[in-house]
Amino acid sequence: MLPYINYPFEYISGMLGSSVDDLKLIFSFLLSYPLAGLLKRVPDSRPEFKNVFIISIAAFYLVGLFSLWGGLRTLFIASAGTYALASYLPTSPYMPWMAFVFLMGHMAINQLDRQFHGNPEVMDITGTQMVLVMKLSAFAWNVFDGTLPDSELSELQRARKIEKLPGILDYAAYVLFFPSLMVGPAFDYNEYRNWIDTTMFNVPPTVDPSKKPPTRFKRKIPRSGTPAMWTMASGLGYVLLFLKFGGWFYPEWMLEDGFVQSGILRRVFYLHMVGLTTRFKYYGAWFLAEGSCILAGLGYNGVDPKTGKVSWDRLQNVSPWGVETGTNSRAYLENWNMNTNKWLRNYIYLRVTPKGQKPGFRASMATFVTSAFWHGFYPGYYLTFILASFVQTAAKNVRRHVRPFFLDPNTQNPLPSKRFYDIATWLATQLVFSFAVAPFYLLTLEKSILVWSRVYFYAVIAVLVSIGFFSSPGKVYLKKALEERSRKAGVSQLKKSGSTESLTGHRPEPVLGLNDPVRDVDDAIKELKDAGLSSKQVKQVLEEAIREKQTELRSRSKKA
Q: Are 189 and 166 a contacting pair, CB within 8 Å?
């Protein structure tokens, strides 16, 4: 650590009541903006200078600011071990799994050490290591994919494969990319490679020359100052909200005897607000990190050929609006920690499935276990994940058997009453997840159960009642009611149709490992069944949706 560097942070900490290391972390986020601006100004023709600059700033953050000498050693062990495996066993189908087990096991040692011997108020390397596990496990798979023929790879795998192992300097800069070093976002090596050699910014010939994004001087990186500043402003706004609300809503109060003196509605409201305040902290950190990545140019995600508008969402990690307005569990989770979702999907869920087979229960379970294990070993994490899996089952049943009552049986357009369904499901989703995620920040089993008991386990009871109802004759009653409704509307009854897999040829993807493997398309099929469409009509609707999705994915792939 640099001499005297702690003094200003200790002074501000005394004024605000925040920990010194939290203030240092925010400082590192803000410092990354001018540094990212300097990084972008290094000549495009000298990528080696960019690599040296990145490594130097990362070393300053780790050692000069946080004095993480042990953390630097940890990152070296993880990255050197992965590089060695990729160098000596590139063609072995076991190499990526060996790297994955090595990285997860190494991280587990550090997480257990922090859990039992560390100080939660002090910055350590485990958060950075979690991001590195995603980057390096993906790197190992990308190297292995580079040894396979294109015919055996998906479109994404072909775009991310590494045919030639990068040099040490390139690899070290990828590992230590300072704007995303501490909290992410994670990204694949080829994205870094395409950024540093500027091929990422090649404009497709379909784009009108007059619509090409503006650049400064002779750089190929488009001007990114405005979107970066907006993202930074959003991050700072969430940090300020966290600091303000943190003085009003904090977990420790829920553990005090005075908490139970208030009414149950007030306790539930307080629980929700503590969860919201905690999310503000994550929103702030992720937005601040993403903004400096955008300023450096790595957030670039293509240009619209019609309007010339540049997209900067390549490394977007969270959509607060999507989380806070989510009306079902999937909408809530898919907008949270997006890059972790992508990693789980591309490098766990799809990789554990043998070639020629479709992902099923094994893939879902492997994803769930990996996600839980990746977060750490506090009992609270597992309480949250287990309850969330039941929440998704309950939400699926409601969407499948209740939602159709609020849709026109002929057109499937929302009825005027649908707004009440949306309000009810939004309120239920937010309150259930406020309860479910409480153990995630309380961490211990004792504290989690105590807080849950003080709000009478309302979400556990609601979820179990819902699952019990849909396992009872109540489900049959709803089915018959929907069939009668369709009959009265003059819609012909639907005959039995094939499963999700027969119509789509693939399984839906997981969200943080908490998925029902057939949740999306099966839900749609069921809703169409309940509406009384014919089998042919159902197939036509789904095939059209699949074609639209394929077009969208091809467009995204071209941008990437």
A: yes
Residue 319 near residue 338, CB atoms below 8 Å: yes
Q: Could you read off the pLDDT of 125-160 as tens digits, one per residue? A: 999 999 999 999 999 999 999 999 998 998 999 999
pLDDT, one tens digit per residue, over 190-242 is 999 999 999 998 887 777 777 777 777 777 888 899 999 999 999 999 999 99
Helix, coil or strand: residue 414:
strand
Q: Cα angle at 139 between 198 and 361, to 5 degrees? A: 125
The owner of tokens 């700072």 is: 236
Number of Cβ within a 10 Å radius of residue 348: 21
Q: Residue 111, Cβ neighbours under 10 Å: how many?
A: 22
Closest CA to 307 of 414, 407, 212: 212
pTM of the model: 0.85
Tell me: the pLDDT tens digits for 454-475? 999 999 999 999 999 998 888 8
**Strand locations in 214-261 (E):** none
Contact 85, 95 (CB under 8 A): yes
- Whole-angstrom distance, CA of residue 402 vs CA of residue 406: 8
The helix (H) or strand (E) run that includes residue 417 is none
Q: How far is CA 10 from the centre of its chain?
A: 33
DSSP class per residue in 312-360:
--TT----HHHHHT-SSHHHHHHTSSHHHHHHHIIIIITTSSPTTS---
- Smallest CA-to-CA distance from 31 within 361, 325, 288, 306 is with 288
Q: Is 402 helix (H, G, I), strand (E, B) or coil?
A: coil
Handedness of CA 547, 553, 558, 559 (dihedral sign): positive
Q: What residues contact 441, with CB distance under 8 A and at least 6 apart?
A: 251, 274, 275, 278, 380
> Which entry of 106, 117, 272, 375 is annotated as an active-site residue?
375
Helix (H, G, I), strand (E, B) or coil at 215: strand
The domain locations on the chain are 42-197, 370-559
- Does the annotation mark 375 as catalytic? yes
In the beta sheet, which residues pair with residue 414? Answer: 407
Q: What is the distance between the alpha carbons of residues 105 and 86, in angstroms, rounded to a whole number?
A: 18
Collapsing DSSP to helix, strand or coil, 482 comes out as helix
CA–CA distance from 138 to each of 150, 202, 332, 377 (Å)?
A: 18, 25, 25, 23
CA 558 → CA 156, 220, 420, 548, distances in Å?
10, 18, 40, 16
Backbone CA torsion sign across 11, 15, 19, 22: negative
- Quick one: how far is CA 453 from the chain centroid? 30
